[in-house]
Amino acid sequence: MDTAGFVAAPGITRHHHTLADGRDLIYFDDPDTRLSPERAADTRMLDPRPPTASMRQDPLSGEWVSIASARQNRVFLPPANLDPLAPSTPENPSEVPSNYDVAVFENKSPSFGPLLTDPNAPAGLAELAEIGLGRTRTSVGRCEVVCFSPENEGSFASLSVTRARTVIEAWAERTHVLSQLPGIQQVFPFENRGEAIGVTLRHPHGQIYSYPYITPRTQRVIASLETYGPSLFADVLASEQAADRVIIRGEHWTAFVPFAARWPIEVHMLPHRQIPDFAATSLAERDELAVLYRRLLRGIDAIYSTPTPYIAAWHQAPVHTHRDDIRLMLQVTSPRRAEDKLKFLAGSEAAMGAWIGDVTPEQAAAGIRAAVERSMAADAASEARA
């Protein structure tokens, strides 16, 4: 693994292993870990990895769709004693052979990969942008699972600040490494939380997708940059900081409900300087993010009496282009529009991509701000009792 040029946090140690079918596994240990550096080998007898999927082009939009049928066989909401992301036991030979703080491994049923090169792999961005009928390419790339904790249930919000910092370090280092792999055009860390979102495992975890193309959402951002100019992200941040939709503002990061929010709960977070991805963040920026991001998600959970389903998406600049004007950006979205109601994407949104908001962004921001304050007060009271 080439980590030249990457600024790693002191105290967070890494241990590299290989699973029984050849997949990479990396343990990231907290600075105050009590775990031994010795880790068990994966002694399972595993089937060969599924063949790499293929992707097909939609000639009407130019978008590429990966057809990864092997994912139909993945585990669906197993009981805690059969959690495939828990540390392995004789009764549950899981994906992670030893106890851990944070663990990252290649997905057993990937949407992209495991092949990184192939005769029918994309030949470059210009070739992918061409339009034709019946066009297919191999879905080269890499998909990884990031286990936030050995616990069976939870989310990023349930982590300690120390553990949150270790997860952020894993995102940064894996972004750096994955960006160097052949054929990778964009790296995307994210967390799906809650069955309403479609989560198939309750274990606290996220994923990292490494795409062989620039995603449609980022292509739209590039088009906006070409129309507006390279200062778009800086100007958006300045405009949002001057508005009344700011949720949290620190030395290095600001979280806000965006001016044109689509979802009932939607919060974006931007760094205060131009950073293309996690790998480019400073240690101070990662340290503050561990506090502020955790605080934001705990506040979103405090809006209602039960945890909030969400998608937490870390948008990063493409690997080879627009590094100086696309800024690392968090977008947290939830379909929850009331305690017991969800916003479903119906005709206008799902079919036409034309969104209709159910609440003003200013009202949403006030509610989320109040929830963050309640969560912080509850945490302070809990610490005082401890």
Automatic annotation (TrEMBL):
InterPro entries: GalP_UDPtransf1, GalP_UDPtransf1_His-AS, GalP_Utransf_C, GalP_Utransf_N, HIT-like_sf. One of its GO terms (molecular function) is zinc ion binding. Residues 84-214 form the Galactose-1-phosphate uridyl transferase N-terminal domain. Residues 30-47 have a biased composition (Basic and acidic residues). Pfam families: GalP_UDP_tr_C, GalP_UDP_transf. Its cofactor is Zn(2+). The active site is at H205. It catalyses: alpha-D-galactose 1-phosphate + UDP-alpha-D-glucose = alpha-D-glucose 1-phosphate + UDP-alpha-D-galactose. Its EC number is 2.7.7.12. Residues 30-60 are annotated as: Disordered. One of its GO terms (biological process) is galactose catabolic process via UDP-galactose, Leloir pathway. Belongs to the galactose-1-phosphate uridylyltransferase type 1 family. This is Galactose-1-phosphate uridylyltransferase. It comes from Cryobacterium zhongshanensis. The gene is galT.
